Each structure stands twice: as C-alpha cells, then as structure tokens.
Amino acid sequence: METTTQNEKPPGTGKSSVNPDALNQLLGQMVNDLGAAANGALVVLGDGLGIYTALAEIGPATSEKLAEKTKLNERQLREWLSAQAASGYVSYDAEKNSFFLSPEQTAVFADPDSPAAMVGGFYGVSAVYHDEPLVAESFRTGRGLAWGKHHTCLFCGTERFFRPGYQANINESWIPALDGVQQKLSDGIRVADIGCGHGISTLIMAKAFPKSEFYGFDSHPASIEAARSHAQDQQISNVHFSAGAAKDFPGDDYGFVTIFDALHDMGDPVGAASHIKETLRPDGSFMIVEPMAQDTLAENINPVGRVYYAFSTMVCTPNSLSQEVGLALGAQAGERRLRDVLSKGGFTRVRRAAETPFNMILEARP
To answer: pTM (2 decimals)?
Structure first.
C-alpha cells in the first residue's frame, strides 16, 4: 500500500512543484487556442466581406490584386491574409508573395454546399461570446437562458453549420437506413419535423419527396418566419411551417416524425417523446438525430466532444433549464440516456440506424 510522505501531496490538492514540460505543453495549447479564438472573428469577417469567395475565384493573388477585386482597403486586407495564412486557413506563396486557397481550404471556407463547410460554426461562436453575460447570470440563478434570447448570430450560424451535413446525409444515407420509411415517403405520408429552426432539414426532405406533406414546428417564431421565407424562395409547396412546442404541436396520423439535433435542448424530452408517440400512426417511425457521443465523460474527451460540450454549456443546457422540467440532457447525452428518454416516452423499439463522426441517428418505433 502506497502512502503519501509528509512533503508530498496527492495530485490536485494544495500547492505542488510545477512540471516544466507539462507547463510548456499546456502553454503551447493555450497559445494555439488563443490564436484560434481570435481568428474565429476573422473568419466571420472574411465570410461577410466575401474575401474567401473572391480568393477562390481569382486563384493566387497578391493583397493588392485581391483588394482590387473586393474593393477593400489593401493594408487591412493584407493583415487579414497574414493572420489567415498563419492559421493555415489560407495558403501563402513566399516567392510570389501571393495568397490562395487549396481545394481543401475552399471546401471548408468558400463552398457553402460542401459537406466540409465549417464557417457557420464561427457565427455560433460569435454569438456565445456576445451572450456570455447572460449565461453567467444563468449560472448564478439556475434559471437557464431560452434559445430565443441569444444573439441572432446563433440562429443563422446554426443553420449554416448544420445544412451541409444534412444536405449530404438526410436523403442519401439516414432515411434509407430506416425501416421502410423511404418507400412510405415516396408514396406519400404526413411528416412532422420538430424543432425545425430555419427549416433546412424540413425543406431537404420535402424537396426529395414531393408526394409527402411536411409540417415543421419550432417554438421560436422568428425561426419559423425564416423557414417560411426559405420555402418561398425555393418554391417548395408541400411544406408548412408554424410555431409549436414539442409537447403539444398539432396534428396526428403522422407516418414519420423527426427531430434534428434538438431533443437534448428540450426541457421535457420525455414529454416530447410521449406526445410524438401519440401523433404517430401505429406503423410510424420517429427519427432522432443527435450529436455523436458515448455514454461517459471519459469517452467524450476528444476534439468533437470538446466542441459539443462548449456549445452545450453556453446554449443547450441553459435552454433546457429555462423550460418546464429542465432535464438538461446536454449535447453529449449519449445513446444510453437517449434510449431511456424514448423508453419513458412509450417507444418500445429503438435502434441506432446510422452514424457519422458528428451525429448518431436513432430510429424509434411504438
């Protein structure tokens, strides 16, 4: 049996000598994180000013040439390009003193339809920095912070961040992985998309299955207005958007119900699951798309878990706490807890139908 000597202290208790190598490693990580945090604002800036798009269009260019194309101030543009090159977000040719986007950088920063597009996430980061005082107050009171009280950058950022993945996967792999749902959608059924936000998921499905009728519900009225605008712009007529909560949205006889990355945000996900079961046809299916997570914290300490835990701290958990019950599953709930919610909601058959590095897709049947 090992014992602690008088001059030694267990890890994490009191003061102890600093390990220089461990300290330097942590400082190196902090320098990297500070650079990432500061350059996140530059990503939003570059996207909003159209710099990425312009650079992708003209290819290798000096700051002077890019300034001519974008009509932006050359000196400030040069500094932006330098910071982006130091981050690896833009490539730099030292011999020609020119900047360019590699195909991979273009996919991430300049192609909104790429499955690898990531710019939207930085708009979400912008919102959580802006809302830090509101979240701090939620920490003090435990009253939470409702989704609709966040900065508007969160709403457009969420849409832009999730849309590429949904576009690449919903109709191509997730729905085909479900039991008979694709054929039912092709033949024509009623579908409810709960927590639809700006309606991106709803519209992707409605466009692919014109014989089915899609109903998108969200408790945030401004998001519903945005969804209706998107539907009008895309001239998709088999979709209907209205404000409604997951526990009492209207309608019944739905052959298919979906929730995309939103069940964990709900104050009463069990109540939501119970209401969904009541609205489903006996042979209906419920598809739940949730952030990829394992069942324990130890298993989720990884880069993806780091992102999800951060947004969960600032957005998802406070949002749930602001609602009735406030179960606060968090964005890294894991399949075991999700299955428990669905079981308590009355679903007897639950299986993992598909997964990606960022999402798990569960199918629940009555």
So the answer is: 0.90
